[in-house]
Each structure stands twice: as C-alpha cells, then as structure tokens.
Specification:
Largest sheet: none
Structural class: mainly alpha
Number of helices: 20
Number of strands: 0
Shape: globular
Radius of gyration: 22 Å
Order of helices and strands: HHHHHHHHHHHHHHHHHHHH
Distance between the termini: 46 Å
Strand content: under 5%
C-alpha cells in the first residue's frame, strides 16, 4: 500500500498537485454531499413540499444576479495564475485589488436596482402561489438578496485559491458554511414552526460569516503579498481582466438560461410541487457531476500553465485519462439508476414519488454534460472560448423554444425540460471535441482558434 501511494504521487509536478487536490476534494465533497442530502431531508421536515418548492424557486433567481460579475472571476483566475507562476506579486495585487473594486461597483448598482424594484414586485404572482403571504415573501427576498450582494464580493477569495491551484481549500469554505447551516436548520426544526423567514436568515447569513472570516485570514497570512488595497486599484488592468471575462460572461449567462431557469419554467407551466420532485432527482444524479468536478477542476489552471510552456504531451495524456474516468463515472451512473427507487425511499421516504423516466433523462443529461466538460476545461484553460460563446447563445435560444413548447404542448412534464437541456448542450457533445482536436493538432484556424 505504501509503495502504491508513493507511486501515485510520482510524475509531473503539475499532475501531482492535481492529484493532491483531487484526494482532498473527494473527502471535502463527500462531507458536502452528505450535508447536502441531510439538508434536503431536514428542510423538508421544517417546510412542506410546496413551500420548499417556493423557496427553491425564489433562491434560483440569485443565480441570475451571480453572472453580473461579467466573467470577472474567470478572467482573474487566469491573470492571477500567470502572476503567481512568475512570482510577480505586485501585478497579482493589482489584479486582485482591481477585481474587488469592479465587483463592489457592480454590487452597489445591482443592490440599488433590486431594492427599488422589490417594492413593486408581487412575489405571489412571480412564484405562482398563495401558500405564503406577500409580506413574508417580500421580507424573505430582502434577507436573501441583501446577504447575497455582500457574498457576491467576498467570494473572490475562492477565485484566488483556485488560481493558486488550491480548489480543495476553496470547496472546504463552502462545505463549512453548509455544515453550520444544517446544524442551524436542525435547531430550528426543534424550536420553531416552519418559517421561510427563519430559513432565509440561516441559509443566507451563515455562509457570509464563514467567507468573511476566511477572507480576513488568508489575506493576513497566505496571500498577504496580494491582499487587496485601494492604493493598488488600477482600472487600466481591468481590460486584461474583462477581455476574456466578457466571453465567459456570455457563456455563463447562456448556461444560466439553459441549466438554471428550469425551476421557474416548472413553477409557471407545471406547478411548484414538481420543483421539489425535479430537485430531489437532480440532487441524486448530481453526484456524477460532483465527482467529475472534483477530478477536473484542478486542471483549468494546469492547462493554462501547460499551454504556456507548450507541453502538448502532458495535455494529450491528461485528456485521455479524463475520458477514461468519464466512462467509469458513466458506469457508476447506470448503477445509480438501477437503485434509484430504493435510494429515494431511504432518503426521503415514500411520500414523494420520483418517476423512473425523470431519473433516466437526468442520468443522460449528466453523462453528456460531463463528456463535454472534458474538452471544455482545456478550451477554457487556454482561453479559446469565442466559438463556445456563440454556440452557448444558440443553445440558450434553443432551450427556451424547446422547453416551453414541450411544457405547454406535451404531457412530458419535467422530463421534457431535461430533454431540452440535453439538446441545447450540442456544444459539449459535438463542437468541443472537434475544437480540442483542431487546437491540440495545431490545425485550428479562425473562430476555432479564437
């Protein structure tokens, strides 16, 4: 065993670093997954199925605001990684400081716009419900969005950790926040009646506290040399951050439409209760995505470094290994499908029934999404994302047309929306593998190399 472990940690320094992060992330994500499943169970005990569906739909709106960072995080990830690799800490400090300044300005604008708009929003209409009063829903919206705007800025510490090829540590911060949230909700179930307002305080405030403490710690210890400072804000560097970031922004917004608007469409065309059914099945099969993400995340910055050093041999070898891992995860997904009914019964009981066909299409969704992810991680790492940007916009339009059509004119229900997501992901299934081969073989021209 000792010999096997020693051999596992041999090889290219870039690969060894990735392996260490993968192993650490497996432990952290294992805890996170357990906490996530328990949180669903505890929250369902605290709220009824319909109210929980309302909560899921309301909080899904937060994702829309997340992407107003205009891809700044992705731009910072690449630029800071380059600065750290060359030990140019002054430039790194400028990039970090400027990123915080830009996001702070964005947050101020968004907060003012939302707080004015929220006065006029009738959340009972937006969420298609009379189960919760308009006053309570408005209060919940104020709580959730207020903490979200603060978190919008301080979450940049996670990007800094990613840029330094420490994604496991970044994930640990989220896991700690969720663990404290779980404990708080459990206490609420024992001390209060089901309340969206109490739930909003727990789920919104606690992660912000964890990130705030972590930000202060890292910038006074590990990253003291690049800690943000008003004196180092230089908007001339914003162009470098935003040039690539804008492309990622378009991709992220398109992905948001395709993958994150499902709850809203289900609520409007099928009913809030089905949001709960969808999310339970989604969370179960998202284990595949979670496992894939653990493995592939460390390679973004690694691909950037390898590309800069023209290490094509390492890139090709890594992509082949990741494809083998994808096939193993697909087999694991099939096993999950076979035992899905038994797991649902163990996890949430028999009150909520999850159709087999929903489980089947979600498995296909995650298999196709992770397949494309093998290639898109490389494409993102080397910054050749213009084609991905265009295909993502086309995919978003396709999703809207197909999803609403299937929801309105067929009896497929939630299954139809998942099928729409799969079809809309034609970039990952078809385009990304072709682009990878063109780039790696030095045959990419025009938009394939932009």
């Amino acid at each position: 065993m000792k010999k096997y472990i020693n051999n596992f940690f041999k090889g290219h320094e870039r690969s060894v670093k990735a392996k260490k992060n993968i192993l650490a992330s497996i432990l952290i994500k294992g805890i996170s997954m357990t906490v996530g499943f328990l949180m669903v169970r505890v929250t369902l005990d605290y709220l009824d199925q319909t109210t929980y569906g309302i909560w899921l739909t309301l909080t899904s709106f937060l994702t829309w605001f997340t992407f107003f960072e205009i891809g700044l995080g992705s731009g910072l990830k690449n630029k800071l990684a380059e600065s750290l690799a060359s030990k140019d800490y002054k430039k790194g400090k400028i990039y970090v400081s400027t990123a915080y300044a830009i996001l702070s300005l964005v947050v101020i604008f968004l907060a003012i716009a939302f707080f004015i708009a929220n006065i006029f929003i009738d959340w009972t209409i937006v969420l298609n419900t009379n189960e919760v009063s308009l006053q309570d829903l408005t209060t919940v919206a104020y709580i959730v969005f207020s903490f979200f705007f603060f978190r919008f800025v301080i979450k940049l510490i996670g990007i800094v950790l990613f840029a330094d090829q420490r994604p496991a540590l970044s994930n640990m911060l989220n896991t700690l926040g969720n663990l404290f949230v779980l404990l708080t909700i459990f206490i609420l179930t024992k001390t209060t009646e089901g309340s969206l307002i109490y739930l909003a305080w727990a789920l919104s405030a606690i992660p912000v506290v964890v990130l705030t403490i972590s930000t202060f710690y890292f910038y006074t210890h590990d990253y003291k040399k690049i800690a943000p400072s008003i004196k180092y804000v230089d908007f001339k560097y914003a162009r470098g951050l935003l040039n690539l970031g804008i492309k990622f922004f378009v991709i992220q917004v398109s992905g948001l439409i395709i993958y994150q608007s499902t709850n809203f469409i289900i609520t409007q065309y099928i009913g809030p209760a089905e949001v709960t059914v969808y999310n339970i099945a989604y969370k179960y099969f998202s284990i595949i995505m979670m496992g894939f993400t653990i493995i592939i995340t460390p390679f973004w910055s690694a691909y950037t470094e390898a590309w800069a050093k023209n290490d094509m041999k390492w890139i090709k070898s890594t992509v082949k290994k990741l494809l083998n891992i994808w096939m193993m995860l697909s087999v694991a997904g099939i096993i999950m499908l076979i035992f899905a009914k038994q797991f649902y019964a163990f996890w949430i009981g028999t009150e909520i029934q999850i159709p087999f066909k929903l489980s089947l299409v979600l498995l296909l969704y995650f298999m196709t999404f992770t397949f494309g992810g093998v290639y898109n991680m490389f494409i993102n790492g080397v910054g050749k994302v213009k084609l991905q940007m265009y295909t993502s916009v086309i995919g978003a339009i396709l999703f809207i047309v197909i999803a609403i059509s299937l929801a309105k004119y067929t009896d497929l229900g939630v299954v139809g929306l998942v099928l729409a997501s799969i079809i809309s992901n034609f970039n990952g299934i078809i385009i990304a593998p072709i682009q990878y081969k063109k780039i790696i073989n030095n045959k990419a021209k025009g938009i394939w190399n932009a």
